[in-house]
Amino acid sequence: MNALRIRTVTWFSCFAVVLPLLSLGGCKTYPSLNPDEKPIAHDYLIGPGDNVDIIVWRNPEVSMAVPVRPDGKITTPLVEDLPASGKTSTELARDIEEALSKYIQQPVVTVVVTEFIGPYSEQIRVIGEAAEPQALPYREEMTLMDVLIAVGGITDFAAGNRARIVRNVDGKQHQFSVRLDDLIRDGDVTANVPMKQGDVLVIPESYF
Predict the structure, then answer these.
(1) Hey, which residues does 174 pair with through a beta bridge?
(2) Where does the SLBB domain start and stop, copy by copy (predicted)?
């Protein structure tokens, strides 16, 4: 009995020492994001996996829908291996016109994006204790709530109020605190913040 008591006291003593260390290691604070911050206007950039309709006026034989390859390029009749990733649809249209001008007099091209993924640098990534961690295409005025809906919320093991967003600001990475539990479980709309292109949402696991 004495040996059992000693082991029990020792276990609780160790727990009392370890618990503060876990709390200190997992409760690093980051600045909060402003929920009223307005997103900066941004033109959509084409990325690998997008589908684009290329319409050449009065030249249906070279008009077609093509996918953007994993290497970020497209191939169409008379135009091979033309870079498309990272360009707006207008920029790509002008590049195609330049390429076609060798064969067609004063071509007029319109590019319409029909399936949207976007370049990797513009996607929103969700990692950790999300129901379905994944990369999402950014959409104008996208918020944290929109992202959580897209990934099916968080798991039962998530420490939602210890989540953070990793964001590129002026070429440097910064981390910002977000409150997922308050947003999802308490309906606190002040915890809903704007997302930006390239954000990474990190959802840690709860210790207990």
Answers:
(1) 167
(2) 124-202
One domain for residues 60 and 111: yes
Beta bridge mates, 169: 172
The pLDDT confidence band at residue 19, using thresholds 50, 70 and 90, is: very low
Whether 138 and 123 have beta carbons less than 8 Å apart is answered as yes
Average pLDDT rounded to a whole number, residues 28-35: 86
67 and 111 share one domain: yes
Instruction: Domain of residue 146: give its range.
Output: 120-203
How many whole angstroms separate alpha carbon 126 and alpha carbon 129? Answer: 9
Determine the pLDDT at residue 13. Answer: 41
The H or E element containing residue 201 is strand 200-203
**Amino acid residing at 192:** N
Q: Supply the pLDDT for residue 191.
A: 97
Query: Residue 170, CB half-sphere, CA atoms under 13 Å: how many?
Result: 0
Report the residue count for the chain: 208
Does residue 90 sit in the same domain as residue 146? no
